[in-house]
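Trying the structure run again after the queue cleared.
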Amino acid sequence: MTKKRADIVGYDASRSWFVLIAAVTSAGPVDGKRREEWKELFVGSAAGLVFVTAFTSRDTTRSFLPHSSWETEVWIAAGPDHLIQFNGERFSGPFPDVMLCRLMPQ
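Done. Tokens:
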């Protein structure tokens, strides 16, 4: 397992969320493998995890979308006020599989 780290890690204290951002130019998008690796890095954390891939433009985004994982967000610098969400019942925020109750070792 490569355990590639996030390019940017932010923390929203009011919601207790870590926001993990991958710049697509450094190591590609948040795909299924990276999403799982990042979940493992934060096992036992009380904070929820939000996964974001950052792109420079829509053109760059198009070539990587097929590799982006479900239950992640996409941010494009050319349209910084918007996010694209890959599936889910809410806009942004951690999904149930990355909340504390699911991450604690049994």
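The first strand starts at residue 8 and ends at 12. Worth checking whether this holds up in the mutant runs.
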